[in-house]
Amino acid sequence: MKRPPRILDTLVYIRKLREERARERLAAALKALEEARRDLQTVRDTRSSLYEELRQKDLSGGDLRLLGEGMEGLFRETFRLEEKLKARSSEMESLKTELRRAYQERRVSERLRERLWWRYRREEERVFYRELDDLTLMRESRSRKR
Question: Residue range 108-135: average pLDDT?
Fold first, then answer.
């Protein structure tokens, strides 16, 4: 049996690199997702603090109008950040599936490489023992002739 091709080593190496890159992208996406959650929580906390201030103060019409415009801006910002969070979450899920696929591809290529090397070694061992048996038989036949 021929020795397994070296291209399998290269294939395993490439698959490992692909998996590592997918893992790095997933880590970056997780960091971005946490940042989006923090930003959204900050805006929600700001909105809650404004509600608390409103409960404690008496406001004139002009102040109320300005506060309403500010609250409208906070609502838009909250909506924008919620959409951003949804996008980050969906990106996270797609990167998880990509990482899962990269891991499976790496494992398949490693198993293929291991199986071919195992067959090669087994065949080499079989040839070795066959030659050893032949040599042993030749020695025995020579010793009997004498």
Answer: 93
Angle at 45 between CA 39 and CA 47, to 5 degrees: 105
Cα–Cα distances in angstroms (integers) from residue 34 to residues 29, 77, 94, in the given order: 9, 17, 17
Tens of pLDDT, residue by residue over 51-110, are 887 777 777 777 777 777 878 888 899 999 999 999 999 999 999 999 999 999 999 999
User: Over the range 27-44, which residues count as b (16 or more CB within 10 Å of their CB) and which as e?
Assistant: eebeebbeebeeebeebe
The residue whose two tokens read 């404690």 is 56
Q: What is the DSSP track for 1-34?
A: -PPPPTHHHHHHHHHHHHHHHHHHHHHHHHHHHH
Helix, strand and coil in the chain, % to nearest 5: 90, 0, 10
Q: How far is CA 76 from CA 59, 82, 83, 84, 141, in A?
A: 23, 10, 11, 12, 97
What separation in angstroms does the CA of 52 have from each of 55, 58, 62?
Answer: 5, 12, 19
